[in-house]
Amino acid sequence: MKKRFPGGIHPKEGPGGKAVTSACPIEVLPPPARVVIPMSQHIGAPCSPTVKVGDKVKIGQVIGEKTGFVSASIHASVSGTVKSISPCIVANGTTVPSVCIDNDFKDEWIELAPPPEDTPLSELCNMAGLVGLGGATFPTAVKVVPPKGTVIDTVILNGAECEPYLSADHRLMLERPQDVLGGLRLIMASLSAKSAYIGIEMNKPDAIGKLTELTKDDSNITIVPLPVNYPQGGEKQLIYAVTKRTVPAGALPSAVGCLVCNVGTSAALYKVKTTGQPVIDRVTTIAGRVARPGNYLVRIGTQIADLIEAAGGILPEAKQLIYGGPMMGMAINRTDIPVTKGCSGITIVAFDAMEEHESPCIRCGRCASVCPMLLMPTLIDHAARKRNFTEAERLGAMNCIECGSCTYVCPAKRSLTQSCRISKRMITAARKKGGK
Amino acid sequence: MQKQFTVSTSPHLRDSATTSSIMLEVCLALLPAGIMGILFFGFGALLVIAACVLTCVIAEYLWEKHTHKPITIKDGSAILTGLLLAYNLPPTAPIWLCIVGSAIAIIIVKQFFGGLGQNFLNPALAARAILMVSWAGIMTTFIKPEFMGFLGGGADAVSVATPLALGQSPANYSLWQLIIGDIPGTIGETSKLALLLGGVYLMWRRIIDWRTPVCFIATAFVLFLISTGKLWDAASNQSAIYQILSGGLFLGAFFMATDYVTSPITKTGKIIMGVGCGALLFVIRSYSSYVEGCSFAILLMNVITPLIDRFTPAHPFGEVKRHE
Q1: Could you report the per-residue pLDDT of B153-176, keeping only the tens digit for each?
Q2: What is the bridge-based pairing of β-strands A258-262 and A281-288?
Q3: What residues in B contact A417, CB-CB < 8 Å?
Q4: Hey, which of A133, B190, B233, B290 would disulfide with A264, CB 3.0 to 4.6 Å?
Q5: What pTM was estimated for this model as a whole?
Q6: Domain end: A275, A297, A328, which one?
Q7: Taking CB atoms and an 8 Å limit, are A354 and B6 in contact across chains?
Q8: Which is higher by pLDDT, A32 or B154?
């Protein structure tokens, strides 16, 4: 079976990329003196704080309660005193009410106990405040309950980690493979899924080897080595590469009987099942132009400045500070932004996309040939620039997964992905207005 | 003060390929054919190439200066247009003709329609077509090739008929001559080996798609095979192999029909482009008063490119058929 989705690119990394970081064992970053924990770290309704300024909190204590069905509660990541509850700037540039906790360095935990054996999976996810740790941050409790009438027969763990520079998932698979597999077995049992796959890009042969070894007696778990092709970790791309099933446009993976979950999410799920520990930390890569790139186990709410300091500081040639990987991450210009549940890495590059001026489209078609969703990005770009979003919709702009491949290859250096993003927002707004 | 970082939208990585690097690679791929042209036709050919390239670049600069537009001569597209036009001219073309042709290509065909990316006709081919109907005599006078003839010195150029113009008379040219380029013709069209080398390089580098050139040549081959009934005939030019190795077919298939701006974007579109060019070339060569139809075949397909694009839309991954 050819494990390849259509399109895709092979982005070139600069110094301090995967080649360096994937060999760095996960180090525990000492808890910082202060954490800033935003009350919205997931897709869906923000949490409402359950603590007041001056309250003493312990690690693992709920400080933000979920307020809707699509939401995930938030826990204290250090013990200490709530210093303030005020709006703070997060990676995407918006301000979110955040709980600041001054660490008392006593490292006091709430009483942890494994939940009862018969706790349903969604309840486990709710207890842990679990969201998609790959970066999508969709509440896992919602995901593991398939829509009525659909049957999930296949669970796919996403260990592709196709984003350049990042190696957090890679190290996690190497160092905590039993957690990853444990979480997977929990999901399979809960959904009565017949088969499971772990898709891993072939540039991580050690992880593939280790997991293959550990699952050799499991006839229903298959480790799938995948070609190194960005965006291999895209949900629809991964499902297609592993099962040859095509998720219909606008539909969820459950439409083809699949559930896709990041390896980090799976490991976190196993942790809550066995110890009752909620999500209070995560593995984050710091890569690129820093003195010592590496992987760290970081408490949620740690400000990026602390992480940078641990990595030995930013090198002078750095031009962009990116929250996430260079393809889909967000450029930021301040270091007081906290690491949240979805932060798989911090990348610092010496490249500045704004220095390259765009020139007219020469219709070379490269964008179309790399688009994993088989769109025509340049035509959507033309339509968006003319503010003709009806045309952009006709061209399938809503299918865009914003992977950035088109902008990456464009020889005329046009911001095609951005045009698609704008089109998606405008089409969504128009649909809402139209009452659809 | 804290270090300032640039904030921009993702992705924050870019491929190293630029418009100018692509243009220059196409120029590089054209180099072998040009060298063969100079070796067979002498310094006259070099002069024509130099005149066309220079005039194209200067014309682009002057026009953009005059209209207060950003100067884009660095993108290399004018150099490429100059090269392609020169390759489509006979080696004996006078310098004034080169200058007129280049100015037409850049100013009328390209800049009048908005510059790079906006022209609907291939500038070099459109200019050639205009020169062809305006100065048919000069444009169809070809000299006998003489390998490294310029070293012998002095021998007057002899006017001869091209392989296609020989008609039903016995062919004078062997298969080897057709392949290596030891035949009369325009500067860049004669050496099929050099053109193939450049074409394969561009396909290997993924600068051009294989569909258009392969479909172009294959369609012409099949149609000529059906109409002549012969694969190869040493006694006349009426055979499939002879026809596809003559005239501008290879130059057109690899370097002109694949021009980004004036050809379809989709894969299906590229196949239609190739098949259409091959079929039109066959029709023009077989049934019109022109012996060679490559330029007009491509130009006609250029004109319907927007239509092809319109009728070969992309199908998004997982597209759901809409029932309306």
Answers
A1: 544 566 777 777 765 555 578 899
A2: unpaired
A3: 9-11
A4: A133
A5: 0.91
A6: A275
A7: yes
A8: A32
